[in-house]
Give the backbone structure.
Amino acid sequence: MSKLALLGGQKTIVRDANSPKKGGNPESFEDAFARYVDAKYALPVSSGQTALNAALAAAGVGPGDEVIVVSFTWLASVSCVLHNNAIPIFVDIDDETFTMDPKDVKRKITERTKVILPVDIYGHPAPVVELKQIAEKNNLVLVEDAAQATGAQINGEMVGSVAHITTFSFAGKPLSSSSGGVLTTNSQEFYERAALAGQHPSMLSQIVTTPELRKYVATGGYGDNHRPDGHALTLAYENLKTMDENTDARIENANFLTSELSKIPGITPPYVKPEVRHVYHMYTCLYDENHFGVPRDKFVAALNAEGVTTWTYIDGANYVFESDGTPCHVGPLHHRTIYQELDLYGKGCPFQCPHGMTPKYEIGSLPVTEQVTKQEFNFLQHDLTSPNDLDMMKRYMEAIHKVIDNINELRK
Ligand SMILES: Cc1ncc(COP(=O)(O)O)c(C=O)c1O
């Protein structure tokens, strides 16, 4: 009878000790991503939405708390606040970069504010250095929604290393994969608490080392499921290797479009702050309807008919339709039903929470947001990314000039 392996005998099955760590990669995605953005911790999750949910849970956001957010964004940047049963307080954007306006933030901080949540909309970083100072002065947490901005930089620092917590998404974004997202932070406490929001107990056993948090490991933390898909992480790991090269080529295309479009009266190409690297998840222009005498949607439809894919993002006209297929204009988030009804669960929660103040989201209360929503139109990341090169950008310009040369036809 051979001796038991447990007692020093020979193993029955010997596996290859040198097999790669995860998904065939020599290091884990989280290590590679943390290194890429220069953050201490990276926590892969199932989406940009769950990264935000986890970030707010890590910051301790709960009933009655206020989170300062923008209305000029994708749904998830605000629905994460509702997910944590807290109250979104909308602030305006600046009229050049369309990111959170720090002056309006200062006006809207109250004793119930817990988090400031700016969005790097279209891939242009929000002013997180200034917002972090405001947050720290007021004992708040800065959570940056960088879903659209992987690879962006401010003063040479990577987005993902500046805010207290930063969240990313992979679904069709600058770092693209089939699904998934990731959260980064330099704080061990935020990292462990974010993991507790939705990771499997086996992961939590490895991640959570703080004694007062370990008692939550066995219940899977707070019980949500933010587990990422392993194949999606493998793909994200591969795409991370070529992302900067692709982004640089996209920036070159964007710079060409900007130099050409700035010669056209009535179209304002995107402004980029000198200290940032804008990664152009979308290339966003403002359209002056008064100048052209043609509604923006008709102009955008004419471009699309010429083969230049453009859409109006915040207004939703590219993804919300009536049952007969007519595009809807849903406006910035504070215009939409949930925020106008203030009654998410049919009982007034979380807006009419006895722990907090009931907000009122007035139409017209965010003038820059509302104006830019009416004027913006976007080229998509994909259409500025390889194999689309400068020759293709020249063809886009050809099509734009064709539409403008025929603008009288559209006025009829
Ligand atoms: C600004 C912003 N935040 C959050 C998200 C949510 O990411 P996901 O779709 O991966 O949940 C998105 C997705 O488009 C986004 O654009």
